[in-house]
Amino acid sequence: MTDNLQDVISTKLAAAIANPLFPAVDSQLRAGRHIGQEYLDNYAFLGDFQAELDSFYRRYNVELIRAPEGFFYLRPKATTLISRSVLSELEMLVGKVLCYLYLSPERLAQQGIFSVQEVYDELLNLADEAKLLKAINLRASGSDLDKQKLAEKVRAAIGRLRRLGMLHTVGEQNSGKFTISESVFRFGAEVRTGDDPLEAQLRLIRDGEAATPQSLQAGKAAFNQETAVENDEDFDDSQDENEEGAE
């Protein structure tokens, strides 16, 4: 019996699953939570058993990823057997603003502590208001009521990102104060190039970009294709006009 079991599961994977930390870590990962170095025991556990747990999760068509910044998370494939939820456009845009704030000098000046109001103000300052209102299906009138609804949506987005392990509450639960985790770099993957990260992130926010690197590439390809089609149509129209002029 033991020999047959070892053919299916390695000794080290069995040790990982038997570890008392596994149930909580597994539940958090499946819920979409990001586990960084601030979670000392859970982080060390994932580091010790990363290869074994990755092979375990691949049976569910998901991957255990360790990002360049060090945090762990599960990345589902299209055929995943683990339920997943998708962030809204506004939630992703708020995540990008948090990434921008993480990179900003203000983070050091404020000892890494930010407020919900600061995120909202920074979002209005950096992003186009019409795009923000459109992201939550509001008419782009800029009325006080619209801004109030937008503020409520931003608070809800911050709450969602907190549950995913990207923010950590400072003080009382309803204080509105928090620190930002390195896991916000899930929204900054596009700036992992040679460009200045702060400027690159700011450009993404101003463009209203709230997408994954894969969808960015797909969008770029679609844009290029549409441009090519439009150029062809313009060329055909000009040819028709020339032919009509010749007649």
Automatic annotation (TrEMBL):
GO biological process terms on file: cell division; chromosome condensation; chromosome segregation; DNA replication
| Cellular location(s) | Cytoplasm, Nucleoid
Query: Where do the segments described as Disordered lie?
Result: 214-247
Keyword Cell division listed = yes
Is Cell cycle one of the keywords UniProt gives this record? yes
Q: Name one GO cellular component term.
A: nucleoid
Highest taxon of the source?
Bacteria
Q: Where is the composition biased (Acidic residues)?
A: 229-247
Q: Which UniProt keywords apply?
A: Cell cycle, Cell division, Chromosome partition, Cytoplasm, DNA condensation
InterPro entries the UniProt entry points to: MukE_C (IPR042037), MukE_N (IPR042038), Scp_MukE (IPR007385)
The function of this protein is: Involved in chromosome condensation, segregation and cell cycle progression. May participate in facilitating chromosome segregation by condensation DNA from both sides of a centrally located replisome during cell division. Probably acts via its interaction with MukB and MukF.
Return the similarity comment. Answer: Belongs to the MukE family.
Subunit organization: Interacts, and probably forms a ternary complex, with MukF and MukB. The complex formation is stimulated by calcium or magnesium.
What is the recorded name of this protein? Chromosome partition protein MukE
Q: Taxonomy-wise, where does this protein's organism fall, top ranks first?
A: Bacteria, Pseudomonadati, Pseudomonadota, Gammaproteobacteria, Pasteurellales
Q: Which gene encodes it?
A: mukE
